[in-house]
Amino acid sequence: MTDTATASAFPAPGKIALKLTPRPRAGRLKLVGADAARLVLPLALLGIWQGACSFGFISPRTLESPVAVVGALVELTLSGVLWESLVASFKRASAGFLVGGGLGLVLGIVAGLWRTGERAYDALLQMLRMVPFLAVIPLFVIWFGVDEEPKILLIALACIFPVYLNTFSGVRNVDPKIIEAATVFGMSRAAIAAEIVAPLALPSIMVGVRYAMGVALLSLVAAEQVNATSGIGYLALNPRASLRTDIILGVVLLYSVLGLAVDFLIRTAQSRLLPWHRSVLEKAR
Amino acid sequence: MNQAIRTPLLPAEAVNLQEEAVSLKGAAKGFGGRTLFEGLDLTIRRGEFVALLGASGSGKTTLLRILLGLDTLDAGEGEVATPRAAVFQEPRLVPSQPVWRNVLMGVPRRARQRRQALDALAEVGLAGHADAWPVTLSGGEAQRVALARALVLEPTLLLLDEPFAALDALTRLKMQDLVRRLCARHHPGTLLVTHDVDEAVRLADRVLVLRDRRLTLDATVGEARDGTTPAGARLRARLYAELGVDPLGLEAAGASGRAP
Ligand SMILES: Nc1ncnc2c1ncn2[C@@H]1O[C@H](COP(=O)(O)OP(=O)(O)O)[C@@H](O)[C@H]1O
Ligand SMILES: [Mg+2]
């Protein structure tokens, strides 16, 4: 009895066929297939959503169908509002990202290389992380007026932290043994920083940049509450749209597409800028 | 392309073998109240291959780090010849640079030429890997790149800290032969830190043992390199005894043999 009980706890002896290397099909097709796989789940969700609306499970007042949402986007496109909003928002987001991301990058590098820098402002920046950005909008309006400045500065403020944090940790996490070897081989501190630390911190910096790009897009919604007449954040929350779930959802959809675009941008940049990186080398194999 | 092994920049007759690559007098070092060594004298001449044996934690790496300028002496004085170069237990290559750029790490930026790297890589048998990324190398290959990086400087002093410890047995033997050949061609003063008696005797002209805070043994290898000769067996036995180990496990075997 005990024997059978013990035996059954283990898999029965048997045979397993070994795996063959999969033969590559036409290279182009395979690439497209791999990218297309990423779209399967979003498309399936869209299908379910449309089905639920078409068959009346969901009333249009609660949630418009994807077709209606696309319709709203088409309407906005034809009236020129969408393009105008995208351009206005892109200008703000990219200006804010460049200012905030640039600042985060410089501060991160300085704090990473010199302890004095870390001691001087790391705590301050850690506090910045917890700032509720909606709450500082009135302050920004008082300080910077109601034109573009407060909007751009709000986005910049939100972009500083992710770039700072990832740059700092990227610089600090460079293997000290490699730096020690470089010192032994007579490289100067400046050469080590430029030729070794900077490139090795780049993967981490890219993570920060990717995050900050997302943050820049998201903070548009808050920034464009300030006396804006255009922009995708304005589009989502302006009074005329507030009763149109199709427009709100259209903007949400737009956001996800922009998110995908940022993702694509970063992936492309990664394979260009980090040819030595494990992740890139493995993909190329 | 000409991949032939280059002639050394410094032919044997041009090297002053009396020149001291390392001279230490009364060297002492400790950490947090614990003395690793004191009153330590050591001279290594140009072209001489010295192995330093010692138990783990005896301070071998610390001594080597002092010679590399990565650590300081608590007492005593010393001088090392430059250029000096090192190979560590890990390859310590820069992953963001292709192999050939890693090889030129110690060459001043203005003097860097791909040609030099290719020659050095050919010497360690990696001519075909110049453009590879470090992460794609095996452990043995990466360690050979590290060796090329050291040799390209034509060092007067070469410091090796257990450079073969992480390699498989076969690769280790090949690497040891390579290092011996290269050192014979470039004649740096060489200090090899190791805890492997066979490795020390196989490579070195002189073997030192660091134990109880001082160099307790300083033996010339000479005829004793061949372990099958009586001299060879005697030197190994002495070294093992000095390190407090029983190489053949005779005591352990005897103990189990006596059991009923
Ligand atoms: N920077 C340091 N601070 C404190 N203790 C250290 C430091 N470096 C080495 N030690 C100690 O010194 C001893 C000798 O270390 P090490 O020279 O690496 O020995 P070995 O190379 O012979 O194994 C060890 O006990 C180690 O913990
Ligand atoms: Mg050690």
Short description:
Chain A is mostly helical. Helix content of chain A is 76%, strand content 0%. Chain B is α/β, with parallel strands linked by helices and 260 residues long.
Strand tally of chain A: 0
Distance between the termini of chain A: 53 Å
Q: What would you report as the Rg of chain A, rounded to the nearest angstrom?
A: 25 Å
Sketch the topology of chain A as an H/E string, one letter per element: HHHHHHHHHHHHH
What are the bound molecules?
A: adenosine-5'-diphosphate, magnesium ion
Q: Note the total helix count of chain A.
A: 13
Overall domain count of chain A: 1
CATH topology of chain A: MetI-like fold
| Strand residues, percent of chain B | 15-25%
The global form of chain B is: globular
> Number of DSSP strands of chain B?
9
CATH architecture of chain A: Orthogonal Bundle
Strand line-up across the major sheet of chain B: 5-6-7-3-8-9
The run of helices and strands of chain B is EEEHEEHHHEHEHEEHH
What is the CATH top level name of the largest domain in chain B? Alpha Beta
Specify Rg of chain B, calculated over alpha carbons.
19 Å
Number of domains of chain B: 2
CATH A-level architecture of the largest domain in chain B: 3-Layer(aba) Sandwich
